[in-house]
From TrEMBL:
It comes from Paracidobacterium acidisoli. InterPro entries: Aminotrans_II_pyridoxalP_BS, Aminotransferase_I/II_large, AON_synthase_class-II, AONS_Archaea/Firmicutes, PyrdxlP-dep_Trfase, PyrdxlP-dep_Trfase_major, PyrdxlP-dep_Trfase_small. It comes from the Bacteria. Gene3D superfamilies: Aspartate Aminotransferase, domain 1, Type I PLP-dependent aspartate aminotransferase-like (Major domain). Its EC number is 2.3.1.29. This is Glycine C-acetyltransferase. Homodimer. Pfam families: Aminotran_1_2 (PF00155). Signal peptide: none annotated. Belongs to the class-II pyridoxal-phosphate-dependent aminotransferase family.
């Protein structure tokens, strides 16, 4: 007699693949956060300096966001009780979307349950099998999945290579069907900035749709964190702007900004929007408060960049490979420490944790084979002593396990 706890043979192939990860040294355990997300956090019961979080501006634990969430629960309850298109659209949802649209200088906005579903749901719904997608080779997985779901023909151009993108556009210029150019505003693994302005020039020249995923640019680039479109002064030239509410904004969710017709269409056809319950009121209120803070506390972004410049400079002085040779050079608070070998990278990450530093190792398939790295992310809330201590741990641990740095 079998029980629910018995290992069934139908999934033995998964066990074999996990064993292979362990053999390669890239298997990992999830670190568990005890308490709030802060520059110094407690993971697995151990206090560590945190260089792994997307909490760029410290909003995850901001008192005004906490107050907004609590008040929303009192006013609206804990859940909307339905998908948006049936009975789950609340006044507070509309308030958030209107606020984001004004902030991003567009006609309209729609909020999704995550940044991943915002990308995948948008790309898959606006294109079909007769259309073409021109995508940067290092675009986020959600873009790749959305492109595949659309059934459009996918053309991948070399990373940030605008000339190659144009070559591919010329190849399909006379083909029937729409053409979509898509890029990350900031690339999540290397921290470099996408050539949004130059790709927008191509979109104008060839009549293509222009789309930017601004997940890691929102709250980081542009005036008051308006993103890469503002950074490059490309307002009115990017048809589709995707952003996230789970990084600098400090909560969870994604959004799409653009024309009123685009947003109206997504409300009718984007499957993640149609078939997922809308955001809890507490999360929605938190996001509204966060956008207010972007306007009222711009000094947070200034601190973020001051910390970023200092940290990058010190990593370079210590001799760490932070990109620019075999990988793109970081231009943002995301700074990879390139190790190359997956096993060594994960060993380094574990040794750093033991020494008091949370800095996550990232290996294949998240990045290419031979490009494994420790990805570090600076925030506005790290103090100079905390940064100096993190640098000391990095230097000593690298030497201890034989990594040049």
């Amino acid at each position: 007699m079998t029980t629910a706890l018995s290992a069934r043979p139908q999934l033995r192939h998964l066990t074999a693949q996990l064993d292979e990860l362990k053999r390669k040294g890239t298997y990992f355990h999830l670190r568990v956060l005890n308490g709030v997300q802060e520059p110094v956090s407690v993971y697995d019961g151990k206090q560590v300096i945190n260089l792994a979080s997307n909490n760029y501006l410290g909003f995850c634990n901001h008192p005004k966001l906490r107050e907004a969430a609590i008040q929303a629960i009192k006013d609206y309850g804990v859940g909307p009780g339905a998908v948006r298109t049936i009975a789950g659209t609340m006044k507070i949802h509309m308030e958030l979307e209107e606020k984001i649209a004004r902030f991003k200088n567009v006609e309209a906005c729609v909020v999704f349950q995550s940044g991943f579903t915002a990308n995948a749901g948008t790309v898959s719904s606006i294109l079909g099998k007769d259309d073409f997608i021109l995508s940067d080779e290092l675009n986020h997985a959600s873009i790749i999945d959305g492109a595949r779901l659309s059934r459009a023909k996918i053309k991948v151009f070399r990373h940030k290579d605008v000339d190659h993108a144009e070559e591919l556009l010329k190849e399909v210029a006379n083909e029937p069907g729409r053409k979509l150019i898509i890029t990350d505003g900031v690339f999540s693994m290397d921290g470099d900035i996408g050539p949004v302005d130059k790709l927008a020039d191509l979109a104008d020249k060839y009549g293509a749709i222009m789309m930017v995923d601004d997940a890691h640019a929102s709250g980081v680039l542009g005036r008051n964190g308006r993103g890469s479109i503002d950074h490059f002064n490309c307002h009115g030239r990017v048809d589709i702007q995707v952003g996230t509410l789970s990084k600098a904004i400090g909560a969870i969710g994604g959004y799409v900004c653009g024309s009123k017709d685009l947003i109206d269409y997504l409300c009718h056809r984007a499957r993640p929007f149609l078939f997922s319950t809308s955001h809890p009121p507490s999360v929605t209120a938190t996001c509204i408060a966060a956008f207010d803070l972007l306007e009222s506390e711009p000094e947070r972004i200034e601190r973020l960049w001051d910390n970023t410049r200092y940290f990058k400079g010190e990593l370079g002085r210590l001799g760490f490979n932070i990109g620019g040779v075999t990988t793109p050079a970081s231009e943002t608070p995301i700074t990879p420490i390139i190790i190359g070998d997956g096993r060594l990278t994960m060993d380094f990450s574990r040794a750093l944790f033991d020494a008091g530093l949370m800095a996550t190792g990232i290996a294949f398939p998240t990045v290419a084979e031979g490009k494994a790295r420790i990805r570090t992310i600076m925030t506005s809330e790290h103090t100079r002593p905390q940064i100096d201590q993190a640098l000391e741990i990095l230097e000593k641990t690298a030497k201890k396990i034989g990594i040049s740095g």
